[in-house]
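Subgroup meeting minutes
Present: P.N., E.W., G.H.
Scribe: E.W.

1. P.N. recapped why we're keeping a running log of single-chain structure predictions: easier to compare across weeks, and new members can see raw inputs and outputs side by side.
2. G.H. added today's entry (438 aa).
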Amino acid sequence: MSLPLAGLDRLIEHLRNATVESAHLSRYNAPMIGLLGVILLPAYYFVWTDIFPQPYESLPLRLVGAALCIPLIAANHWPARLQRFFPVYWLVAMTYIFPFLFTYLLLRNDLSLIWSMSTIAGCFMMILAVYDWLLALLLTVLGALLAWLAFMLGDSTALPPGEYVQQLMVYAFAIVVGSVFNHTALLVKEEKLAAYSAVGSNIAHELRTPLLGIRAAVAGISHHLPDMLDAYDKALAADLPVKRIRPARLESLRDATARIEEEITYSNTVIEMLLVSAGHTTLRSDSFAIHSANRTIEQALARYPFNSAHERELLHWEKGEDFDYFGSDILVMHVLFNLIKNALHSVLATEGAIITLDTQHSSDHNTIRIQDTGKGISPKEMPHIFEHFYSSKSIGQGAGVGLAFCKLAMDSMSGNIDCTSTVGERTIFTLGFPEIVS
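Output recorded in log:
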């Protein structure tokens, strides 16, 4: 009995992981799917009743599906306490709309050609929504069985089961073949992540080796530098012939080792964040602390490697009311680096465009916004901007990992990142931080 139970446990674990992964991969498409569902589900009622009349239609069933789609429109803005329920809600909504609703209307319309084709389309939509073939197949079977149950409990005349079984073979083929292609695409993406991670690990190793050497050298310098500076001061006091050091440079030397040590720590942290971005894993929160938003922005602007004074002049910081957030200031700086880089890429290609950075603080939300008046992001690109390896830039100008990292970073701090854009007018990225609970 232990072997079947072990197999069942593995199956349950697989389905649980597939549910979470499918919901995660679909979160960026959920707003568009939700909007289409709200519009098209009621609209097609009138198509099949007034334009191309079918034997049976049901506006209430379609309105239930449309209602299930409404929360999907705001999938990226669910409160943090409700985020853990999104995977289950996503699968329930998809199961109702595609296998259940489509199968029920297929049965009520006597397996007509129109609804047979619609059900095949529904099978493909289910695959795109769920990704995992086994989970998609189980949910499709469950939805179809519930549709049969609802059909049999109604006043409809029972259809010969053989006719439906014949079509069922076609639907099963659509699910299996579609899942194979979908799975292949996911494997390619995972291989790209693995390759990117391997390259990143090699680069990290090459960078950490000299950093380790610099840190060892700094340890030696910091041990002897105070004595050397003290000897210099005494030589000056005794009017000995020593080469003079300007007071500003002398003061800089006194804390030079501390600043070098700080930069080494910062560099190692950035390397860790880049590796996490490549590995698509969760960021550690054991070093999180309370930080000032304005102070973090100041440090980010001071550290960002602008290529020219002109680039720096394009960015205007409208310093607003400060707020505290719980997280990593280096992590937020790295998010700002990515957003500033993308904004500069947009405004440099647009005459007269500028970048505006500001903060907003209120009783219910804390945000940092980066707005540029550049070329904007098209509606076609918008659902994919936070996906790994998706980039609208030319080859060689972007790897498509920056915004994916920003999303991962904000999620790790229980925050969120949102983007709104109008082509040819502006793009606004908003970083939302939860209120600190005392």
